[in-house]
Amino acid sequence: MLWLFSQMFVLCAASFAIGSVLTWLSVRGRSKTDPPKQVLALPAPRLTAEKVVVDQPAEAPVARQKSLPLKGNSKTMVYHTADSPYYRRMKGDMTFASEAEAVAAGYRMWSTKGRVKV
Q1: Domain coordinates of the chain in residue numbers?
Q2: Residue 69 to residue 103: CA distance in whole angstroms
Q3: 93-113 b/e with 16+ CB inside 10 Å = b?
Q4: Residue 102 in contact with residue 79, Cβ under 8 Å?
Q5: DSSP state, residue 93
């Protein structure tokens, strides 16, 4: 049994030594060089005779919506306002124009505290 153990030990040690030597041989020839310079892709220069003119029609100013719509989750029956921390990541399968409309539909307002079941 000792003979088998010693053979396995010598085999593993020899494999480790051969691997170390091969790694050292492949690395020793490399010299430390500066990191490669970044090559920037620049657009081709334009000819001076070429003149580019783009006519864009004047767009009417878009009126921004002053208040964002309320998002509602039909599974939990909770609606989220723009003040809710979950408003941006929530998809919401229902939208409401006002809180009164959401309450009339049977939804309750979001809260940061969990619901207490009685």
Answers
A1: 70-109
A2: 14
A3: eeebeeeeebeeeebeebeee
A4: yes
A5: S
Looking at beta carbons, which pairs linking 86-92 to residues 24 or more positions away fall under 8 Å? Answer: 86/110
Instruction: Give this prediction's pTM.
Output: 0.40
pLDDT value at 55 more than 90 = no
Planar angle of CA 12, 13, 18, nearest 5 degrees: 100
The candidate with the shortest Cα–Cα distance to 68, out of 59, 56, 80, 55, is 80
pLDDT for the residue 8: 93
Query: In one letter, which amino acid is 17?
Result: A
3-class state of residue 5 by DSSP: helix
The dihedral over CA atoms of 68, 74, 80, 86, expressed in degrees to the nearest 10, equals -110
Distance from C-alpha of 83 to C-alpha of 59, rounded to nearest angstrom: 32
Q: How many CB atoms lie within 10 A of CB 87?
A: 15
